[in-house]
């Protein structure tokens, strides 16, 4: 018997092949669907608008794994097409975590993969809670229902599919429907994960632990990574990982789609290594959990063309440079010189200790999270937009303050005097 389930916007949640006798893990999964999944769907229908459209069932099962990547891309593309939606944080929470559906192709630890994808959604679920906790409790219930889907899925996977998806040893060959031919090869992978929107409507406090939850995982990941593992190179592509194939380039939210006649872009290998006194972090795509821990004061970090990734730098270091990076999250302890952000787009920088100067040049979208010890930091910006500095409050949360982008210059009789203006750009 082929058992299949669809969740929201045509997402194929799980496919199992079982014998005619209903297995224990089928019943357990039915309980998951009838519980948090059903509650999440019902609340999405009540909220309406783009959230209702996002959750609408629309797919017909035609193969086992081929539609997985396609529908994940559709969910994430729907979010990108609706960035101005008043429910954008809801859409982003789903978009960030939806690759968790690929656990069926992950081995030997699919449970931790689901947890990682759930953590990726926390930044946006916390935003929903902050925006609606005093306005509409239905949205709070929606968040709780959605988060519980992944929490219970983790428990389910741990109990019944600890080292990978379990298959029947006696049933017929897996197919999309009874009597259908064998499925074609899986399609392309989902696009890299979005680290969050940097512009518009982001006021009030934001919990920095939630923002960088995907990289704050304890001491086990901070032991001097000098090379990128194969798992980091492909963990956003669970279907192709199961096949052992290469990782093709998926569509990027801020890149124009190439025409049919365009030649494929050259893909350079990812780098994370110490070259003399310079830590080089280059060409990382969708690499969450990059950590540099074996540092010295004389060393520098140069990060180049890293997209949809997170990097943590431990200890005290001379300087850090982000160059041509998109949607990169950086967390560091102490820098005695300068942190430079050049030619970047939608990056987040968090200071855990101290830094004297942060320079932002030719960058569109930069969030700087200061610590209590770094409030005296000088932030110098030029030719940049959508910059925000987040200052910690006494309660541990943050207040977001925009950096001026427009200025007024007047002649006072002896010299030019320039001041920031609050005129909207």
TrEMBL record:
The UniProt record lists the keyword DNA damage: no
Keywords: Cell membrane, Membrane, Signal
GO BP annotation list: actin filament organization; cAMP-mediated signaling; cell morphogenesis
Ranges of residues in domain C-CAP/cofactor C-like: 269-403
Domain of life: Eukaryota
GO molecular function: actin binding; adenylate cyclase binding
Gene3D superfamilies: 2.160.20.70, Adenylate cyclase-associated CAP, N-terminal domain
Locations listed in the record: Cell membrane
Segments of skewed composition (Pro residues): 181-193
Membrane topology label: Peripheral membrane protein
Signal peptide from the UniProt entry: 1-23
GO cellular component, one term: plasma membrane
Region feature Disordered, mapped onto this chain: 167-208
Family, as annotated: Belongs to the CAP family.
Name assigned to this protein: Adenylyl cyclase-associated protein 1-like
